Amino acid sequence: MKRFLKALGGDILNVEFFLPERGRLNENCGSDFVKTEQRLPLGMDVEPGTRCVSFDGDADRIVYYYNDSAKVFRLLDGDKISALVAGFLSDLLKKCGISAKLGVV
């Protein structure tokens, strides 16, 4: 991730890394923990609306999440992300005047 940010250059993204001091990889902070516990990683405190992401051990699965203005935890897992991307692509196709059926599998 740090190499990716360096390649982007500038201040395009503001990224902070949260790494627990001890323990196993992703213990109480990885994507499985966040999804099953439906909460922020242990020891992590963020302002409402701050977008966060957790990876699994080999980084082939991620979940996005945030606390809303009422400090209620909100999770965007793969299904929700797929639906958002499909909606975005559908809107783009309509704006381009392209009539197409779009599905998510």
TrEMBL record:
Gene3D superfamilies referenced in this protein's UniProt entry, alphabetically: Alpha-D-Glucose-1,6-Bisphosphate, subunit A, domain 3
GO molecular function terms listed in the Swiss-Prot or TrEMBL record: phosphoacetylglucosamine mutase activity
Protein name (database record): Phosphoacetylglucosamine mutase AMG1 domain-containing protein
Biological process annotations from GO: carbohydrate metabolic process; UDP-N-acetylglucosamine biosynthetic process
InterPro entries the record matches: A-D-PHexomutase_a/b/a-I/II/III, AMG1_II
Organism ancestry: Eukaryota, Metazoa, Ecdysozoa, Arthropoda, Crustacea
One Pfam family matching this protein: AMG1_II
SUPFAM superfamilies: Phosphoglucomutase, first 3 domains
Phosphoacetylglucosamine mutase AMG1 domain residues: 24-63
